Amino acid sequence: MDTVIEGLKKGLLLIFTLDREVFQISVFTVKITATATLISILISFPLALLLAWKEFPGRRLIISLANLGMGLPPTVVGLWVSLMLWRSGPLGRLRLIYTPAAIVIAQTLISTPIILALATAALQQVDRKLKWQIMALGATPLQMLFLMLREARYSLMAAVMAGFGGAISEVGASMMVGGNIQGYTRVLTTAIVLETSKGNFDTALALSFILMLLSYSATMWLTLIQQRRYRNVYY
Which of 44, 101, 165, 219 has a CB 3.0–4.6 Å from the CB of 116, allowing a cystine? Predict the structure, then answer.
């Protein structure tokens, strides 16, 4: 218990004193995860709309693979990305291994199935009659896409937050493809693993509290929006 208390104290100290290294790692972590989440959104939302509203061969297979991907171990993702980006791999000539770009790729592969599966389920709940009403009003395909996403926006925001949480909390893939290089590819999760392996449990706990604070801050706005919506409905 004393270790936990000391870790909490050190975490607060690192936050309020704006420790340079911790600040750099925290900003880098948010930047990497936000980029991966944005790429996942751009991939998942159009595909989710297609899966939710179109019947085509292989549709159920894609949905089942997306659902399977929600539980995909990050170390498996890290292994495959490493094999692809390694110097002797198919994409080795790009020299992306042990770079921030490699971490973005790995986190994108982790968050995309989560967002895709949840977004597909959310869009499938939208009344199909709405689609025909939008088409009858002469909306373009792009306008229909926007209106359908707007109709399911609260569930889609939850999907995005789940994808963001899955990406920011993973450690195996980031360690394998990024190498945990100080000042270059080190994120909060890999820093926690490093400090734990060195026996610096108070520092590891401090970093874990900062990671939880970042995760909570990123999801708090979603809760506020959702609760505001429910207040408007009931009052």
Answer: 44
